[in-house]
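Input record (one chain):
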Amino acid sequence: MRACRQGSRWIIWAMTKTPTLQTPLILAGAGHAHLLTLRQWLDQGYTPPPGSILLSPDPAAWYSGMMPGLIASRFHLADCALPLDPLCTRLGLRLLHGQVTAFDAGQRTLQLDSGLAIQADIVSFNVGSQPASVITDDSLPLIPVKPFPAFIRQWQQWCAEATPRRISVIGGGAAAFEIAMALATSLPDCQMQLLCAGELLPGHPPMVLKRAQRWLQHRQITIQDNCRITRVHEGQLWHDDTCLGPTDAVILATGASAHTWQASSGLNTDERGFIRIDHQLRSLSHPKIFATGDCASLPGSQKSGVYAVRQGPVLAHNLKAALQGTTLQRYQPQPQALALLATGDGGALLSYGRWGAGGKLFGWWKDRLDLGFMQRQRLHSQA
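The corresponding structure, as predicted from the sequence alone:
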């Protein structure tokens, strides 16, 4: 109890403490690495300790590689989402819906948006990233491509009700290119522009860049390179002191940005706020904390689903080893990764090292890989 005097009156109220849930293991996020971890545990017949938790903001895991195909109306919602409850039930995991708002690395305690606190013996983060923010006066809707469920709801609303006449996609990477191409397919009457802070598709070979530029021009998508959007004011986009004119909606598909709680968690983070990890996928500063995928920082490992998928089996082994006190394995990032960028019409651009190509054959290959990945996850969760 606590009391306070106001004038001649005493006010008495009860002090309540935020509940703290104890668990031996929490998997925060349902990204590629965690899904592959759960799948490998099922294959091995391994059951995590009783009371272990999978934390996810959504009841389903969304496969980012299929989002452009969904927006281009080539996939259905059910094709791109994996319900998590059956998977957790098979492994004896408790599924919690929520998002991390703060983390104390020293105590290994997560604070959730629900107000719940969770203290764990071992923590594994696979929470992805978020698009970089833009200074705005709220005169325009700013729509991040992540989280995917919110973006998909906005797209569905546009298709069913009022389609914007002008959409600006901010970003120059693979996600921005794919989203712009997909929207041009599903919203053909909309004027589309792609605004890149630097060059289009940095890190990809010149032949891929040339093909991408031709595809964008074919779809009448305006491209502006070296055009960093510094603010949104009175319904218009600004690049420093240059006004780029009005638009009706802004999609944020910028490069990966760390969640704000990571830098203030006490974890060793890089200059951008991502969690530094070693080759065993552990935090450099706290060995009982693991991180994989976009939220992590490891030299040679890019922020791409291809790398997160390769981390999955190593993470599965190392979390089990950390719980049992056995030897951990080493993860070594591959020197090159294949990228298949959807062009919105069933085709794709292939990018690998110095090589590039494009066409419907590569789109068929991409669809086969994506649908196969999801089918394997469903078979494991429902068996």
